[in-house]
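Summary for the funding panel

The consortium committed to producing paired sequence-structure records for every protein in the target list. Below we show the first two records in order, beginning with the earlier of the two.
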Amino acid sequence: MSSTTLTGYRELLRNREFAGLYAGFTLTVAAATLSGFALGTLVHQQTRSPFLTAVSMYGATFATVLGALTLMSVADANRPRRTLLALQSVSLAGVAAQGLPGLPLAARFALLLVLGFFQSLGTGTRMGLLAEVIPAAAYAPARSLMNITSGGTAILGFALGAVLLRELGPQGLFVLAAALTGLGLLVTAATVREHSIRLVSRPGLRQTWATNAELFAHPSRRALLVKLWVPNGLIVGCEALFIAYDPDRAGTLLAAGAAGMLLGDLIVGRLLTAERRRRCAFALRLLLAVPYLLFVLHPPVPVLAVAVFLAGAGFAATLPLQEQLLELTPGPVRGQVQGVESAGRMTWQGLGAALAGGLAQVLDPGTAITAVAAVSVAVTLAGRPFTARAEAQMLL
């Protein structure tokens, strides 16, 4: 293990630029948690539709694929700091617009798509910067710290969101989310310096498509993307039904899932070596889905909270997979490839939410959650022979 890994997260946070990226990321997650919870609650109150509620919470993810297919090359071919600040400014405007009272639902969903598009580009740019401001050996611990913080922030966001919702209402949560987004923009501007352009080609559709074609042409990278996207996205679809399943205790279930994610990332990213992380990846993808099979039995909420907590730890499977993807990615296009990975994962989360919400329209939410979790288990089991062959090719 590298010295950076041995010294841990404290050493990473001594890096001013990483600390700035980390703080900006944390504030962005907090804003997204509050705004997503507010919008999901608002849509549920107005429509009582499980499908629309699920899509409203994760609808922005549908647009991330558009960013991955069109302009993701800006993550590597433009000045990264300038690009990130511009994209965060667009996100600030979008979140603030959600706070407008009386805004029609159609306009809110349109804003979701716009925000998802620009957020996908922002993620690619941020991850490209991350790979530059820290050494390669510190990448997994850095992503682990960011994932842990994301889980912890989501726990606080859902818990505080449920409390603040009673005092401020959905519109007040939107205003608070906008303030957090603006603070994240200021922190990033104050701490992150400009870096050189990694890709000399002009950004645009042609460059984006060329890099994406190369990405998907590699069988090992294709296998990694399947493992990163599909099981993860289906389980997020299960989470998208918590409000429809039990509106009064949805915050508890969402917080339990975020807490499990925090613990899983802490253990896998901080305590395990890279080799052990890889060996655990398959078991973690199963853990991600199997506990959700309990929902068909409709046990008490405390039992479900424990199950969701355990399943949340399975999200840590993304760490070794992201680590392997970085190893297989040429330096000049790391921002775009990581942006595509994130966009695809988020798009599958949106697809999972839509699938789960559609099933909940004809089945009860508990049965729909179980069905989607069963599909996730089946995908993980069916894909193991293909991904094992791809991993063997990586060693050649």
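The next record, for a separate protein in the list, is shown here:
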Amino acid sequence: MTTEPTHADEYEHGHEHGHGHGPGPEYEIYDLVGVGIGPFNLSLAALSDGTPGLRTLFLDAKPAFSWHPGLLMEGTVLQVPFLADLVTMADPTSPWSYLNYLREHDRMFPFFFSERFHIPRREYDHYCRWVAEHLPSCRFDARVTEVEWDERREVFAVTHRSAGGVVSHVRARQLVLGVGTNPVVPEPLHPLLTPAHAGRVLHSADYRTHRALLAGLDDVTVVGAGQSGAEVALDLLRHQDGSGAGGPYVRWLARTPAFAPMEYSKIGLEHFTPDYIRYFRALPEERREELVREQWQLYKGVSEETLAEIHDELYERSIGGTEPRAALHPGVVLVAAEPERAGTDAGTGTGTDDSGGGYLLTCRHTEQDALFEVRTSAIVAATGYAATRPAFLDTMAKLVDWDDQGRYRIDGDYRVALDASVSGALYVQNAELHTHGIGAPDLTLGAWRAATILNAVAGRTVLRVPERAAWTTFGAPAARVPESGAPVVWPS
């Protein structure tokens, strides 16, 4: 049910519940409204805080900030150094840096003595929550339900609703979408994503919620070779009691040809720089698509530390000739999945799963082109995330210049191509993998991208961004055109 706003909200929301057409009080107009408050839009909110002449508002449906709560297990760490916080890579003097967070929480000395470069995920989540709670531009419990272009006023009309049903409206000259990505589950598992299989067939994003249930089963299969899959497999191994009987049998399946470490060499990391983004953007679309698939180890690999910990757990369980209750299968694709009756033996587990039916998985080893079957009590799909078009954009979808695959066309300032009738600008964060490359979801580039958007929104240089950040020259170097028959001369 829609209710009227309170008196305190009248200045911003008024009482007009239409879409900005016709008479009614003028709603407050912001220079920039952000939809979604994950790390990337929170970075933009932090960097724009206090910018003269710029009024911003950021909206999120959640009651408070949270970052991948289903994977915040003890002992897990960020895969990027702490300097890749919300602001430091663009403005190290900002009060919203991770170092200032430590100072405000009297943790500077413990952090210094810990000699950490990669910080706990749980602390990163707490740091972001601290920033979000202190920024006046961040508003939670505000689910955006509709965005329209108000041509007469030349603003975006944004409608949002609270969990209690209160509908509110704001207007924005410019809009930035930071709505994040959605979990991706292999197609064979789609029929099993029902309440009847809750907690037993799930995406890794919900792992922590069902962690105790999974730890009590006979056999759990983890699908996916990235960091999330590795962390889930490791956590399940640690639930084994060492006697060879307690805890689940852990099976780890991966489409990739190996359980490979993420590329983390100093030169290799230069793929996560503005230099590489400029190079990537200039490539033909077909080559960009190929590169994203080929470069999986740059952004979908597993940290060497996590792989080492898994190996250590298996080594520990093999002492005295005991066979570890685990199996690792790379180069495997899930072909089909179906439920089995309760009481069926699951996998290579030692008992019968009497808490419900198990599952029969049909898998294919890609290199051998061989099919095999697996019986298991539960399936955790650690199969990543993908950007999708938010439903609230449906009302102005015809004004967006989509590419042939229904994705945004995005320029160097992260501005979406819109119809010529729209004078306002629409920006996106972490929806540009196809146009900007593998750095799109990486926290390393978060503050730089936010600063780039901030400068474009403000129409001036609010924060200086580097022209060059890599030693690597991506692409062929510029050469002087030689005279006929003379050798090519490269610049020194």
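Regarding this second record: The longest strand covers residues 167-177. Residues 121-134 form the longest helix (14 residues).
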